[in-house]
């Protein structure tokens, strides 16, 4: 006899053509096609974090993925951000401050923009993935209707019960419930509420499960058999894992970042706006400590802060310098294995199954 949690996971796998209920998290800048293909070939769901990609980049990424896997895939898009409120004096203070951690920041760095959302959406639709997912809000109804007409399912990332209800009302086929433990940006629909509404997955999952009647995918702090089994018991039908894959060779992140993840305890991460202007969870670094002192200029809004920190972040990547690098990390970083992604995926599920079998 199967545990009800296993039965729920098996039903989800059947719907989406998976052999195990593990989704690679879409990680803008950190989910190359080879990593997505490895997870998909192991029976999970691949992911493309397309935030920073132009439409041609999305098409190229998909082509590369499909050269390595016939498995299923989600393409993830951020809802467009509101125009940032500019503050020239604070931007000047930030440019002076950031010079302490990297090269001179050009004046124009603050004028950065993100790729046009409408173009990204068309490219995602044209690629015909199994799933397109949203973060930072719910897609407009007209776009959801076009996805459905094309046979593409809609997964919506949420961080609260109210957001889960809004996503279901907006036509989501499944909810990705992102707990406060998660690495990378928080998906709060109201960017200003991201820190206040940082809900741990242990409280969020059952509350969302009681509020919606569509499948829930749990994200945040999951990176071994124990945490997968716990998420399924709390009401999830599947799990989405980001940080847990970052030390696999396929992820190919900077060596200093990968090494630091292996040593990090949960308290060694924090939510910060100092990289991009939106709240995200990162390893605590000397740059983040300096940016948090009262005398430091407050971060500019997204994506102005992202533009201003780009020279520092680029130089740090080049020099493999952890102190000034953008090192997103969830609270379960230390569990992340440094083994091939396919092996990791299969081992995680075997361990979770053992815990859930009656
Ligand atoms: C490096 C990195 C980049 C991320 N980029 C995105 C993104 O572009 N879109 C998105 O929906 N989530 C993004 N996330 C969040 C993940 O989808 C997911 O919620 C998170 O990784 C789950 O928590 P975990 O890191 O503890 O596994 C990112 C996470 C990381 C670590």
Describe this structure in words.
It is built from 13 helices and 11 strands. By secondary structure, it is α/β, with parallel strands linked by helices. The chain has one domain (4-356): Aldolase class I (TIM Barrel), CATH 3.20.20.70. The strands form 2 sheets. Strands 1-9-8-6-5-4-3-2 form an 8-stranded parallel beta sheet. Helix 3 (55-66) links the parallel strand 2 and strand 3. Helix 9 (225-233) packs across helix 13 (341-356). The longest helix is centred in the C-terminal third of the chain and has 16 residues, at 304-319. The model has no long low-confidence stretch (mean pLDDT 97). The chain binds flavin mononucleotide (FMN). Residues 25-28, 30, 49, 51, 76, 135, 157, 178, 181-185, 219-222, 240-244, 328, 330, 332 line the site of flavin mononucleotide (FMN). Flavin mononucleotide (FMN) is lined by residues 25-28, 30, 49, 51, 76, 135, 157, 178, 181-185, 219-222, 240-244, 328, 330, 332.
Mean pLDDT: 97
CATH superfamily: Aldolase class I
Q: What percentage of amino acids are in beta strands?
A: 5-15%
Query: Strand arrangement, largest sheet?
Result: 1-9-8-6-5-4-3-2
| CATH fold node name | TIM Barrel
CATH architectural name: Alpha-Beta Barrel
Through-space gap between termini: 7 Å
Structural class: alpha/beta
The residue ranges in which pLDDT falls below 50 over 5 or more consecutive positions are none
Order of helices and strands: HEHEHEHHEHEHEEHEHEHEEHHH
Note the main sheet: 8 strands, parallel
Ions, cofactors and other ligands present here are: flavin mononucleotide
How many separate domains make up the residues? 1
Assigned CATH class:
Alpha Beta
């Amino acid at each position: 006899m199967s545990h009800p949690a296993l039965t729920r996971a098996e039903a989800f796998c059947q719907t989406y053509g998976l052999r195990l209920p593990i989704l690679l998290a879409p990680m803008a800048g950190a989910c190359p096609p080879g990593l997505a293909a490895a997870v998909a070939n192991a029976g999970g769901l691949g992911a493309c974090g397309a935030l920073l990609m132009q439409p041609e980049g999305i098409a190229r990424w998909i082509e590369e993925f499909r050269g390595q896997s016939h498995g299923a895939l989600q393409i993830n898009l951020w809802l467009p951000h509101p125009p940032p409120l500019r503050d020239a004096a604070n931007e000047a203070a930030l440019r002076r401050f950031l010079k302490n951690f990297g090269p001179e920041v050009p004046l124009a760095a603050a004028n950065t923009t993100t790729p046009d959302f409408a173009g990204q959406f068309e490219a995602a639709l044209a690629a015909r993935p199994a799933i397109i997912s949203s973060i930072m809000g719910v897609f407009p109804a007209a776009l959801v209707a076009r996805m459905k007409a094309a046979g593409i399912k809609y997964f919506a990332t949420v961080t609260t019960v109210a957001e889960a209800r809004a996503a279901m009302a907006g036509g989501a086929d499944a909810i990705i419930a992102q707990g406060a433990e998660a690495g990378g940006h928080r998906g709060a629909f109201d960017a200003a509420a991201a820190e206040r509404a940082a809900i741990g997955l242990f409280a969020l999952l059952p509350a969302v499960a009681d509020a919606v009647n569509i499948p829930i995918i749990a994200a945040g702090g999951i990176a071994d058999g124990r945490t997968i089994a716990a998420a399924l018991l709390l009401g999830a039908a599947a799990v989405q894992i980001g940080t847990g894959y970052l030390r696999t060779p396929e992820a190919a992140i900077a060596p200093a970042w990968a090494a630091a993840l292996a040593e990090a305890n949960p308290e060694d991460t924090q939510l910060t706006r100092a990289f991009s202007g939106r709240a995200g969870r990162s390893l605590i670094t000397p740059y983040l400590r300096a940016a948090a002192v009262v005398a430091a200029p407050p971060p500019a809004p997204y994506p102005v802060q992202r533009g201003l920190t780009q020279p520092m972040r680029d130089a740090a990547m080049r020099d493999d310098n952890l102190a000034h690098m953008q090192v997103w990390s969830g609270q379960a970083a230390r569990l992340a294995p440094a083994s091939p992604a396919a092996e990791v995926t299969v081992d995680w599920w075997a361990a979770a199954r053992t815990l859930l079998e009656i």
